[in-house]
Amino acid sequence: MARRTMPLTRRKRAASVGSASVTSTAPPQPAASPTIEEAVAVADLRVLVMCLFHLTGERRWLEAPFVPARDVRLVADPAAGFDEETQRRIRTATVEVLKTGQAPVVEAPDADLLQEMMSICLGENVPDEYVPLMQVDFGFVDDDPTWRNGEAPVSAPAVVIIGAGVSGLCLASKLDALGIEFTIVDKNADVGGTWFENRYPGCGVDTPNHFYSFSFAPNPQWEHYFSPRDEIQNYLEDCAEAFAVRGRLRPSTEVTAAHWNEEENVWELTLDGPRGTEQMRASVVVPATGHFNIPAPVTFEGQTTFTGDILHTARWPAGTDLRSKRVAVIGTGASSMQLCPTIAPTVEHLTIFQRTPQWVRPLAEYNDRVEPDSQWLFEHLPFYGKWYRFTQFWRYGDGLLRFLKKDPEWHDPDRSLNRVNDRHRQEMAKHIESELAERPDLITKCIPGYPPFGKRILLDNDWYKTLLRDNVTLETNGATSFEANGIRTGAGDLHEVDVVIMATGFDVTTLTSRIDVRGIGGLSLAEDWKDENPTAHLGVSVPNFPNMFLMYGPNTNSGHGGSGMWLAETQSRYIAGLIASLAEAGVAAINVKESRRAEHTDMIDQMHEELVWTHPGTGTYYRNKNGQVRSPIPFRLVDYWHMTREPNLDDFHLIA
Q1: What string of DSSP letters covers 196-245?
Q2: Distance, CA of 132 to chain centre
Q3: Helix residue ranges, H only, 381-529
Q4: What pLDDT digit, counting tens, does each position of 345-376 carry?
Q5: Structural element, H or E, at residue 171
């Protein structure tokens, strides 16, 4: 059975984004429009061939000469390796079929056919385990939880979701489909989570947004391939409308405490908001508080004596004007690499304080717009959006993980992990040397000494071109103290500045324990997770905290690739299934077994010992103070998908 999709309403900003325009098999309406030829002319041909097979059912489109060439680049050649005559034949056939207005012949390929099509599309074998995952992601199979008797039992629990970001919104859509009552509480004035909060100049996504979006709520009218912040926020606001969230959202309200009442098997929450301090009760609590919303606590000696403004990228004040000012940015992570190239042209001088250089991948298409001809394909050509998303999933998903493993026989482990990892190093070092050829002193400062991917790989948003500007200084001696008019370095130099911007990242170890959460026997989550060691079974369940299910919890962050939206779908399906299972089992609560968490954590630690994030030469926020990796997921995405596909009540103690 095909999965339902959510129609999105583009409020004020654009024409209607109905998912039916992509997911429906109805023939496109403007059959005689000249835009058909124009659109097909810019199509990705590996995707177009798959669409042709759907439309016609003719197997010749899955055979030579119409088999795309394998292309492992992040942005593949849209010509797919075809010669000009083959390209012409594919495009001509597509235009002719579209003009007939015929409905697709192949609407939902079975597992064997889909695996064959995926392998042909990529030019490489797609393993068996990806097939059920992609059947769901394509929408060919509905894998969402359902009630055994077709409707929610009378005893279905009421749920409170803490956080209205990507994860909270996604779970809301699944609970709404099941008819489970829920309330979303968020400290912010509107939905969006980290995308609501992060508003610094240049803020955007570094995963292509046809993948960084919900599979069941596609947006065929994306304006960029890598969307800036406002476009992602607009999408999430539209999702809130489509997912029936608005009427059940408590904005500008913070959950300050959540205590488990053992006698009544219910969560008692304390809320602070426009109505003052309130109490709320819920059978189930789902903290969806995320990783990237609380700035990492960083202070410097003398900071209070600085007479200028101090900002943090995650708390950007509205109306901030940096024109003609002397600005210092502390940090060279993802936020800094988006911010600095954006503000450098207008400030008087920009001083960037770098503690550790970053490995940066060139991507010329990073700022490309989705032109109207391409938007037409996503909106009107059946299956184009689905197959395009699949190619992005493959390139930004699991393909990298096997190259992040340490080779015990590798001759130079300080430089790289293995042969392929060393090739990645050479490619990125060559890019740095090419970009900074006129400044050898900057090359020395910018090539990292640790293996690639030891820190999060960043995308070059004209970062190195920015470092070459006359009004930009890269300072590598480190900021040690503030003075009234500037920042003093470890070498004793004073940089006089008017504004200091902290691009120092986020607190990713305390997570939900920032809230006063207390479970069985009054155990606090902060105590359970002490020493910066948050752990949870599947990143979701913590022993002694019944009916509490985390989203985006420990060891579920995308380290080797992936999409936060994809993860939210995976966890939402699992958690909604758990809630439905406990309701149908007729129990009041479920409490995950400590043995299950211990087994899962041991497996994570063992796998991370083989991966780059435990490399001794790498310092990263992925690791806690004891060297344990508690942020990124060590599994392939497909493995985690299978782990969470079917809730298993055997993992839990049942509380009657």
Answers
A1: HH---TT-B-SS-TTTSS-TTS--TT-SBSS-BHHHHHHHHHHHHHHTT-
A2: 21
A3: 384-395, 419-435, 440-446, 463-467, 525-528
A4: 999 999 999 999 999 999 988 999 999 999 99
A5: helix 166-178
**Start-end of CATH 3.50.50.60 domains in the chain:** 159-191+245-294+508-655, 303-366+402-502
Q: How far apart are CA 187 and CA 185, in angstroms?
A: 7
- Whole-Å CA distances, 433 to 333, 430, 441, 462: 20, 5, 11, 14
Residues forming a β-bridge with 592 = 652
- CA–CA separation, 465 and 337 (whole Å): 11
Residue 538, classified by CB atoms within 10 Å of its CB into exposed (0-12), middle (13-18) or buried (19+), is buried
Domain at 159-191+245-294+508-655, CATH homologous superfamily? FAD/NAD(P)-binding domain (3.50.50.60)
Q: Are 366 and 493 in contact (CB under 8 A)?
A: no
How much is the average pLDDT of 641-647?
97
Question: Would you state the pLDDT for residue 151?
Answer: 84
How many residues are present in the chain? 656
Cα(515)–Cα(520) distance, integer angstroms: 16
Q: Are 133 and 641 in contact (CB under 8 A)?
A: yes
Which architecture, in CATH terms, is 303-366+402-502? 3-Layer(bba) Sandwich (3.50)
Q: Which two tokens stand for residue 52?
A: 């042709």
Look-up of token digits 């990143």: 539
Confidence tier at 32 by pLDDT (50, 70, 90): very low
Measured torsion, CA atoms of residues 360, 364, 369, 374, in degrees rounded to the nearest 10: -120
CB crowding 568-594: b at 16 or more within 10 Å, else e: bbbbbbbbbbbbbbbbbeebbbbbbbe
Under 8 Å CB-to-CB from 373, ≥6 apart: which residues? 35, 38, 39, 41, 42
One-letter amino acid at 512 equals T
Q: Where are the beta strands (DSSP E) in 514-602?
A: 516-518, 589-592
